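Input record (one chain):
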Amino acid sequence: MRSIASLTLALAAGATAVDFSRSHDTNSSVWSSAAELPAAASHSRSPISRFWNRPSKRQGGWSPPSDLATALQEVWDHCMSTYSDFWGFKNYGWDQIHATEGKINVCVRWESDSAVTEAQRAQVASVYAAQYQKWFSWLYDYDNFPYSNIDVNIVGWAVKDQSLLQGSTKGITVYTDTDADGVPQCSEACGRFFHQDGNYNSCPGGADAHYDHSLWLTDGFSGGAGGDWGQRIGREYFIGALGSSDVHILLHEMGHTFGLDDFYDWLPTGQTNFIMNAGSATVITDFDGWMLRNWWNGLSRYRGWQ
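The corresponding structure, as predicted from the sequence alone:
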């Protein structure tokens, strides 16, 4: 977990989390430039090279393209030297999917007075899962990654009033809990952030009803934030992006949930436009994908997962 440039988020009374994202992520001006990017600027490498290095190419071990190797090593070294407890932290997104054997359960924190329809909730679940698959496609069939599909499901919604959830709520748990600031939150009893030992005995429904992290949608929130607890983005931004293929702020914050760093104060050799460099790309690029693979390659061996 990062010891520098942290954004402390109150998740509940007496509980706080430190983001992997930097506080710059909440600055809307950081993201505004992405809307002006020409299509070619969305990739750190040429479109042709993306095809031969497509994520579906089966590979084993650490063998990045030669033109990315130096920059990837620089990023890995930077993370190891700047994260306060790089190996000891045990709640990366990687730890979560290992504990669940390839699943991610998500609870939505709806920080809004606006109603949300059943159809919109279905779209939220579908689009959210699709964004994660854009990341996970870099891991399937790669370096002994044990899962061929990460099952991402929204299992609950936290709202100020249950009447905001229009239509049927069958299949989800509805929470009206609040944190110390009065913001809707999913029950602490069922959250992995609060029970990293996997003990959900106090959760109604037990472990089957738990959630691994939250999607926090806030009215008027600029930019985003992300960490082991999940992701936070603007409610209006996400609802407005439900028809989009790539929800770039959310993609960036998901990267933080899996430990990927920010690049506000430096850039690795030869790399300028990639999703984890906020505002410089609107899609996951080859460089982003290989940074994710680097985490799996290193952490899975340190944890003894392969």
